[in-house]
Amino acid sequence: MSTQPLLINGTWRESTGAETFQAVNPATKQTMPDEFPVSPWSEVEETLKAADVAFTTIRSWPGERFAAFLESYANIIEARTDSIVDLAHQETGLPVEPRLKNVELPRKTNQLRLAAAAARDGSWVNATIDTAAGIRSQLAPIGPVAVFGPNNFPLAFNSIAGGDFAAAVAAGNPVIAKGHSSHPGTTRLLAEAAHEAAQATDMPPGFVQLIYRTSHQDGAKLVSHRLLGASGYTGSRHAGLVLKEAADRVGKPIYLELSSINPVFILPGALLERGDALAEEFSTSCLMGAGQFCTNPGIVVLKAGTEADQFVDAVSAAFAKATPGTLLSGGVEQNFRAGLVALQRAGAEVLTGNEPADSGRFCYANTLLKVTGDKFLENPHGLQEEAFGNASLFVIASDEDQLARISEQFEGNLTGCFYTETKGKDDALYDRLAPIIRQRVGRLLNDKMPTGVAVSPAMNHGGPFPATGHPGFTAVGIPAAITRFAMLQCYDNVRPHRLPPALQDRNPGDMWRRIDGSWTQSDV
Amino acid sequence: MSTQPLLINGTWRESTGAETFQAVNPATKQTMPDEFPVSPWSEVEETLKAADVAFTTIRSWPGERFAAFLESYANIIEARTDSIVDLAHQETGLPVEPRLKNVELPRKTNQLRLAAAAARDGSWVNATIDTAAGIRSQLAPIGPVAVFGPNNFPLAFNSIAGGDFAAAVAAGNPVIAKGHSSHPGTTRLLAEAAHEAAQATDMPPGFVQLIYRTSHQDGAKLVSHRLLGASGYTGSRHAGLVLKEAADRVGKPIYLELSSINPVFILPGALLERGDALAEEFSTSCLMGAGQFCTNPGIVVLKAGTEADQFVDAVSAAFAKATPGTLLSGGVEQNFRAGLVALQRAGAEVLTGNEPADSGRFCYANTLLKVTGDKFLENPHGLQEEAFGNASLFVIASDEDQLARISEQFEGNLTGCFYTETKGKDDALYDRLAPIIRQRVGRLLNDKMPTGVAVSPAMNHGGPFPATGHPGFTAVGIPAAITRFAMLQCYDNVRPHRLPPALQDRNPGDMWRRIDGSWTQSDV
How far apart (Å, rounded) are the C-alpha atoms in residues A462 and A413? Predict the structure, then answer.
């Protein structure tokens, strides 16, 4: 059986590399039959050259062209739903229904269509016109984008179909997708669909390309290459920081989503009012998908007291009772266990779980840990270690002052949640704690678990380092996510007929533009 | 005579450091009387702690408070125009009139007032409301900002009064200013005005602070400190990259303006049509302020021919005739000479200048260099070395194909200019070259020298690396420059009374907000 081909410069072809790898079905621990290539640098370089040629062709194309591609792609994916979700299920252990078929795949095609609509509409370019000074500016595509997808969303964040891909394409860039090694087959199926959509909509050969794996060193060369415009990376902090360093050194934008423990504060009034319901809500959220979400609630802060004890007991019981989900891979299980060991070394005690579960698949018992506020404050850094999986840590503060001091110790996170009593009993404490957490998270929630990440223009799936590399950008949400893959281009005294359509006097459509300080859909 | 005091936590006080430095009048080479301290790390840390306390106080303040400060500050500066421009003249050698008094100081106070208006209006926060999903987001202050000012604009880019300062304050952040060592007295006068304005408008003590100098190591510690939000740096590439590396490692945004040679293409039709006028326009632009502008036209690309020869001769004559301007410091003169040596080593030949001028002041002859397109293509990197000062390099391409190949070799620049014949004779060549340069510069100009940088909402004073650290941001232009010093904050399901004013249903003023996809000044 031969190795699966790569998609380079519009052609599916054999890799020249000697090394290969195979996916493993995490629900059976069986190695899957297909072999996938590890690309040598020469192949990565070929994708860069082809993407550069493609970019030269498409950089002045109207958004309509990219919209057509994205919509065609969404349609093809939908027509192949069953084969895609079936293979994704085999490679990730995630349930076909509802997760892959009814949630993640529709989320992805919806995202592709929203990106298409934004590309067609064009308002995302933030056209700014100063008629008096004769200066006009807009965001414009930055050049070929490398996308590194994560393990935990084989569809919605897939390197060749997910959020970063859709955003990079909507901005008008070619994409070099680097698939995640844990679901190469799913990525191949999606790349086939992308390639067909690209052909159907007359995109140039180097517009969408796929490589499966490279050495870490070649990954760093890719993100810092002169022909590359920018990169998007979702994954582990360690590997992400290696890429970040390489890209930063040469000023190539790289957008990272690295790690987050997503603190949840349940204030005393809320516990008293609806502790049982919250215990259930929390347990469901935390165990969903075996906790393998970037926004999984990995730490819960409570004020000591009877209600807190009852809440902890109720969650412990729910965790003990629930069947642990399947983890995405052997590596995830290994890292999860290492994370739990690190938390214990840092002072956390085990409430439930922390033991091997079903040995026939990758999994580990649903685990809860606990630490006092005093202990947390002794080692706040060590106790913010991410244990990516079906676990959470309770931090029990002695009083309100300690809650505030704990809040001040949080590193950058994607989200922070507050549950408070409905009639205002917790409001004074909220007003004290929320501003502290606000500065440390991208998204602040009330009375809601963080695991859902709506594709909304107002969403921020981002936050301060180390959750991401820059607190001003979001990985989810159209049009904001698109602007990451753009550069600011200003035209000063440029002759009118040479201006790009978005900056000409006549509005090319219904685009929102800022003309002399006011937003309008009118002509100049 | 004692050392000049620092402004830390609302108080002017002695430095605890032992080391001092003095400014030198570049027009006389005389050391100026005042001594200024080099701050040890303990003092830098004090500013960070004070700024952090100040930020906790002001982070939820309305823009009106920052507007009041900025306007008060602008008024105080104006009232002290004469003393400020007089000292700036002594420290920099820049002429009092028109440069400092009639151009740079009014530019600065205008910038402070535009920043005030933007802070008051609030539209810069980009409030985005998704009513159906219950998700709302806005940009919000990022935390204390360190500003490192450059040598070449003692007023308009001064660390405690210039563009980065105004933008950081308008966003609602405290500022730690690190003055430039070549004009510490001017910076002190401005800091006195800032301090008085802060007191008059009831800002907290750590809101504006000033240190004059630190070790390079402590500068790197400052930009990467956990209490810092972000940094703005304008200056040499080498020192900037050291700061960038430190800040990047811990994910602290740092906005840099590093170096730029600003290619100017004068196409054959334009030379034929108005070569003499262009020679004069170019010479004036390039020699203004002794060429010490970030947007100085440091390289001119021409197609070989009689008109090109005539143009080169005319510019050479103008350069030989004009009295060379005074350079900002001995260091600038030294680097300028080293830059010219490097360009010659890389293959450039001297047309005029390249010799010492008046020995009583820091200066060097107006210098023109020339290289063939063939030579340029042999060593494009070496021939893009910035010689910061009154010099420029002509690149003479053999034909149109070579013009295109030369264009492709340009690194990231702030600006790129094209001069073309007025009736369209050069249009085909423009259409070939401009897209190549477009991708490599922040601002593309037609028939205009790049040295003027209007404070326009549509301005981009930025560009791809190595001109800056990120091609998506501008250092000049309100409101875009403000957004650099902000983080994206999303509110998901947050109870209405807890939302910040910009995100409540009722518009707090005339703010532009994007509600359900449409920009409006109305309420929800």
Answer: 8
Considering only the beta carbons, identify the residue of A252, A444, A487 that sits closest to B494.
Answer: A444
Q: What is the dihedral of CA B162, B165, B170, B171, to 10 degrees?
A: 140
Residues of B whose CB is below 8 A from A491: 443-444
- Do A84 and A231 reside in the same domain of the chain? yes
Give the Cα separation of A393 and A186 in Å (integer): 33
- CB spacing of A494 vs B133 below 8 angstroms: no
pLDDT band for position A259 (cuts 50, 70, 90): confident
In the structure, what pLDDT confidence band is assigned to residue B1 with cuts at 50, 70 and 90? low
Query: Do residue A225 and residue A270 come from a single domain?
Result: no
Residue B76 domain-assigned?
A: yes
| Domain count for chain A | 2
Residue A4 covered by a domain: no
Q: Are residues B292 and B194 in the same domain?
A: no
Contact A517 B457 (CB under 8 A): yes
Name the active-site residue from A46, A71, A91, A257.
Answer: A257
Which residues have C-beta within 8 Å of that of residue A512, sequence separation ≥ 6? A123, A519, A520, A521, B518, B519
pLDDT by residue (tens digit) across B327-336? 999 999 999 9
For residue A14, tell me if it sits in a domain. no
Asked if residue B179 belongs to a domain, the reply is: yes
Question: What's the order of all strands across the beta sheet hosting B230-234?
Answer: B11-13, B6-8, B208-211, B175-178, B145-148, B230-234, B254-257
Rounded to two decimals, the ipTM of the complex is: 0.98
Interface test with A, best of B231, B456, B513 (most A CBs within 10 A): B456
Shared-domain flag, residues A211 and A324? no
Q: Are residues B177 and B222 in the same domain?
A: yes
H runs (alpha helix) in A383-449: 400-408, 427-438
Residues B384 and B318 in one domain: yes
Pair A273, A361 in one domain:
yes
Whether residue B109 is predicted with pLDDT greater than 70 in this model: the reply is: yes
* CA torsion angle B305 B307 B311 B317 (round to 10): 90
Question: Chain B partners of A472 at a C-beta cutoff of 8 Å?
Answer: 139, 142, 253, 483-484, 486-488
- What is residue B259's predicted lDDT score, i.e. its pLDDT? 87
pTM of the shown model: 0.97
Q: Which amino acid is at B458?
A: A
Q: Which H/E stretch holds residue A42?
A: helix A41-58
| Spatial CB neighbours of B431, under 8 Å, sequence gap ≥ 6 | none
Distance CA B51, CA B145 (A): 9
- CA angle, residues A483, A485, A489, in degrees to nearest 5: 75
**Are B235 and B313 contained in the same domain?**
no
Signed CA dihedral, B472, B475, B476, B478: sign only = positive
The pLDDT score that the predictor gives to residue A1 is 54
Query: What residue in B sits closest to A129 (Cα-Cα)?
Result: B458
Type of residue found at B105: L
Domain coverage including residue A102 = 31-258+473-482
pLDDT in tens, A96-137: 999 999 999 999 999 999 999 999 999 999 999 999 999 999
Q: Do B464 and A487 touch (CB under 8 A)?
A: yes
Query: Which residues in A lie closer than 8 A to residue B257 (C-beta atoms)?
Result: none
Q: Can you tell me the distance from the alpha carbon of A282 to that of A296, in angstroms, rounded to the nearest whole number?
A: 10
What is the CATH number for A167?
A: 3.40.605.10
